[in-house]
Amino acid sequence: MTGLRCTLGLLALMVVFITAEEKRAKSASERIEEVNRNIVRAPDGLLIQDDMIYESESGRNADPCTSYNCKWDQASDGMVYVPFIIADHYTSRERAVIERGLQSFHSVSCIRFIPRTGESDFIHIQSLDGCYSYVGRRFNEQALSLKRQGCLYHDVVQHELLHALGFKHEQCRSDRDQHIRILWENVIPGWEYAFDKINTLNQGTAYDYNSVMQYSRYAFSKNNQPTMVPIPDPSVDFGMATEMSQTDLTRLNRLYNCR
Fold first, then answer.
1. Mean pLDDT throughout 130-137?
2. Which of 62, 146, 152, 155 has the fewest CB atoms lying closer than 10 Å?
3. Does residue 86 register a pLDDT over 90?
4. What pLDDT, in 10s, does the model give residues 220-230?
5. Which positions ≥6 away from 220 have C-beta within 8 Å?
6. How far apart are CA 27 and CA 159, in angstroms?
7. d(Cα 40, Cα 47) in Å, to the nearest integer?
8. CB 162 within 8 A of CB 202
9. Catalytic residues, which ones?
10. How high is the pLDDT of residue 83?
11. What pLDDT does 129 receive?
């Protein structure tokens, strides 16, 4: 009987361990899709395109706003200071996850997320109905939603902050058709816009299957079949990043002229 109890206890621990491993194995895009799948509009009525906010339908297919002055300003010391507020409805543990994501930019770029002290333009991080952000700098307060249920992971925080700094999804790059084939027949009707090709500014970097901005093989699938296949080699893994890749950092530093 003692042996049986030990065996059952070991099996229980294995189940817990496997479940935890499965949770850790999810990429940022998979977590975001889970939370955002049924969201259409932000609380203030603004349009949400999977995890990006737009003021109107016409903004969906615009060129990256960084080409017409929605980058955050670079200070005379070479740093790019981005003021933020974290809503007080997060617990101390949840706030620590967010702060770790903010600070992860400091050692690898000239981006410095700083607590707001009166600046007119700032990011307001709060738990709204999903994981989403504007693309690039907006004027005055701009919402960045990290819902307490589902969005508070390091890679998701990095993903949304990269949106706020001006970056689109990797599968929407201007050169994506040379690297990814979209299987439109498997996409959930109405979600085709998540795969719109954009005239992106790629900062001289190659397509990056390991980018934290690359969605997974089955993103927005209506039938559990792939919606994206890499080309020319369909067996290449992609969309599984759990943090910013080196290419993400390279293009961030090039966009903001970090030295």
1. 91
2. 62
3. yes
4. 999 999 999 99
5. 33, 50, 187, 188, 191, 194, 195, 227
6. 10
7. 7
8. no
9. 160
10. 98
11. 87
